[in-house]
Amino acid sequence: MRHHAKLTLSTFLCSALLSGAALAQATHPETGEPLAEDQTFTYRVLDEHSSVDPQVVEDTIGAEIVRDLFEGLMNQDAKGNLIPGVATSYDVSDDKMTYTFHLRDNAKWSNGDPVTAGDFVFAWRRAASPELASPYQWYVKLMSLENASEVVAGDMPPEELGVTAIDDHTLEVRLSAPLSYFPQMTTHATTFPAPQKVVEEFGEDWTKPENIVSNGAYVLTEHLPNERSVRERNEMYWDNENTIIDKTVALVINDENVALTRFMAGELDRTEVPAGQFPRLKKEHPEKAVSFPQLCNYYYTFNQSDSGPEAFKDVRVRQALSLAVDRKIITENIKAGGEPEAYTFTPEAVAGFTPPETEMAKMTQAERDAKAKELLAEAGYGPDNPLTFDMIYNTSESHEKIAVVLTQMWKQKLGVQANLANMEWKVFLETRGNQDFDLARGAWCGDYNEASTFLDLLDSESGYNDGKYSNPRVDELLVQAKSADDSAPIYTEIEQILAEEMPVIPIYHYAGVYMMDSDVGNWPVENVEQNWYSKDLYKIAE
Amino acid sequence: MLSYVIRRLLIAVPTIMLLVIAAFFMMHVAPGGPFTSERPLPPEVLANIEARYGLDQPLWKQLWDYFTNIFLHFDFGPSFRYKDRDVNDIIAQGFPISLTYGSLAFLAASLVGITLGIAAAIRHNTWLDYFAVSLGIAAQALPNFIMGPILILTFTLWLGWLPGGGWNGGQWPYLIMPVIALSTSYMGNIARITRSSMLEVMNSNFIRTARAKGLPERAIIWRHAMKPTLLPVVSYLGPVFVYVLTGSVFVDIYFSTGGLGQSYVSSALTRDYAVLLGITILYGALTVVVNLLTDLAYAWFDPKIRY
User: Fold this and answer.
1) Strand A163-167 and strand A170-174: pairing?
2) Chain B residues within 8 A of A226 when measuring between CB atoms
3) Nearest by Cα to A272 from A514, A451, A500, A39
4) Domains along chain A?
5) CATH T-level topology, domain B95-258
6) If you count Cβ atoms within 10 Å of the first and of the last residue's Cβ in chain A, which end, N or C, has fewer?
């Protein structure tokens, strides 16, 4: 764990004043770039955030705000590596079942109170308690905390949860199963501390800007629902003097094209690029259009349950349909934002494991098409007995384009008739969850940066396994991976099984495609989970 | 007259309750619930959440509790989606915004529309008439979801005169584009209805009589033609008034105004039951009141109508 001796912004200002410069311009302590006078970062969000309560928040937009307002045990750096947060270090027992975190003694809440181990204990019990009924209770279970399931089910009081404050600066965590990536999980909002006094005083209103007390680099100062939320520097934050951005503003703009217009008008520092527009924007504004890999996948899943079509129980049919998908057309002509083509379920961007190059990935598209025809004919489908099925996706322009292109590819290459149906989101989830489909769209973003966050979806028992794929060997390997010292070979074997059995058709892996003002410094393009912190950014003088 | 008003208001209460009951059951029939998500919640977690919000109760009990909370505590329930706020908060924050830009758009649409329509009818078949008619058609052909992006492109990106969105407590630079976007298509309709109504009135017998007794044209128009001309316009304006306050989802989406229109639509999509019901009640009440006002206005415009 490294620690930089940084020259602070105030030191620079002071020395500049002492040297007699009338208009001192601050520079970045590490890069030496001149810093803008107005250190405000303004970005677009698609929707109003669900909450800024760390134990309650359930959407990415809210989590981004919570990561600025609160600080957990560990943070991530620009590459996604773990760095100290409130904890300066941790010890792990030999059986990987007990973690002891050592907390810094200079961490403070925005009201000046010290941040203690007890604040974490309070928060974690709160997250698990049936009384709060947070949707993220599942995350507490995922963390494998001792007695988590019993507490969530209401069979034990929250006090029985496997987390204890040994003293104000020592937090002991007991797990019910060894988990080598537990520290990674403490960068998630659910695990952030909560100020007990304030929560108890104001109840559900504690997150209102006039009541909230937080321990991160920022405090919430303004919230106009469906319009904007503003967070400003927390003077009490332990690393305040190394924080450069003074104010971060999230503007709610539902329409991505309007957001792009407002970016062009200079109202925003960052916005998403609408599908298909990246090549044009990159040409016109090369310094502003950015694209980088993200930890998400996009796929279609076969219904292999009893309610699914007979044809999909034949591996040759599944192989043929996957082979005939020309992923390049989708990534280059429809998405066009630098998304990688997908031949494995796990994105290549994942840490600690390189997904294997599958046989299909090595073939040319012409070879794939030829093999697809061959396999489908072998399976008994052809002009006399055409393969027909329904496919569903949730209503969205981009999903629709991809679905239409898929049906065209299958029709032209294989003579397959796929009937499209789009559904409103909740109807879609219900239909897919009830196995009331033949082929359905799916996508997943990693909860943490480790391959199991994807591969677990294909466990026979997983609640997210809507296609009801089941392979005992895969289930067994997934269990082994949890405690293995080196899980990479295990994940490789799983991906190879998936490539052969093809329970899903991977289409592409996501890219973060942004218009980013060129005066924004240090955006973590290499953090594939896109866990960014305003405190690490800065605005360069133009 | 007073007894009529009281009678109408008394009927309004069961009407709105029926509306809520219908909305309540329709909502529960729609597939998926507020906590259906991509990541299916473990059953015990779902059970905790449902217990907290009373969703584990039978439907009739939920409906009963809902009405009791409203009548006893004026509490319209929690939001399942926005957990830091409840329905009272959401309406208190969003409705004044919708009301402000909606009323301004309504005023702009009626004033400009009626003026254009009357001018066109009086100067029938002149350039003014053609201008008003083509303007009306153009305004109608550009619904607010087309106007929104065009306005932002023009005034924010190219001219740089106005902020591209936001509300900022309703300062006037933030109001201009939402009001224009919302009012134009109604403006066109109002102008068209006023024009044809005025033309018809000006050709009727009592106007001919007025002309015959030598009244000046100005007096004929203002004293005799105006009221009957406006009668069909008023019956159109009533629903429009409710509509500009409620159907402003496009304005909210394009201009990030934070009004209720967007909350209404998103609550339906996310199955945020209490928010959806709360706004339905508000819109229902608004419709009842505005309809009553429209009916009362008829009596003033047309002496033949009596209550």
Assistant:
1) antiparallel
2) 94, 252, 256-259, 262-263
3) A514
4) 3-248+517-539 (3.90.76.10), 293-512 (3.10.105.10)
5) MetI-like fold (1.10.3720)
6) C
Q: Choose the mutation target among B36, B84, B144, B276 for the interface with A, i.e. most A CBs under 10 Å.
A: B84
Q: How far apart are CA A481 and CA A459, in angstroms?
A: 13
Closest-CA residue of chain B to A55: B83
Full-model pTM: 0.87
Greater model confidence, A485 or A4: A485
Give the model confidence (pLDDT) of B57-76 as tens digits: 999 999 999 999 988 998 99
Alpha carbon distance A258, A450 (integer Å):
35
Confidence of residue A19 (pLDDT cuts 50, 70, 90): very low
Q: Which of A258, A399, A434 to mutate to test the interface with B (most CBs of B within 10 A)?
A: A258
Residues of B with Cβ-Cβ distance to A431 under 8 angstroms: 31
ipTM over 0.85: yes
Phi-psi region of A406 (alpha: psi -120 to 50; beta: other; left: phi over 0): alpha
Q: Measured between alpha carbons, how far is residue A134 from residues A129, A196, B13, B49 in Å?
A: 8, 17, 36, 7
Burial B185-208 (b: 16+ CB within 10 A, else e): bbbbbbbbbbbebbbebbeeeebe
Give the number of other CB atoms < 10 A from CB of residue B174.
Answer: 21
Which of A25-29, A387-391, B206-210, B269-273 comes out lowest in average pLDDT?
A25-29
Distance of CA A19 to the CA centre of its chain: 47
- Which residues in chain A are contacts of B94 at CB distance < 8 A? 225-226
Q: What is the DSSP letter of B41?
A: P
pLDDT score, position A275 = 86
Q: How big is the CA angle at A228 (ends A223 and A229), to the nearest 5 degrees?
A: 45
* Separation in Å, CA of B176 to nearest CA in chain A: 16
CB interface of B with A, residues 45-64, below 8 Å:
45, 48-49, 51-53
Over residues B286-294, the mean pLDDT reads: 88
CB < 8 Å to A258, chain B: 148-149, 152, 164-165, 253-254
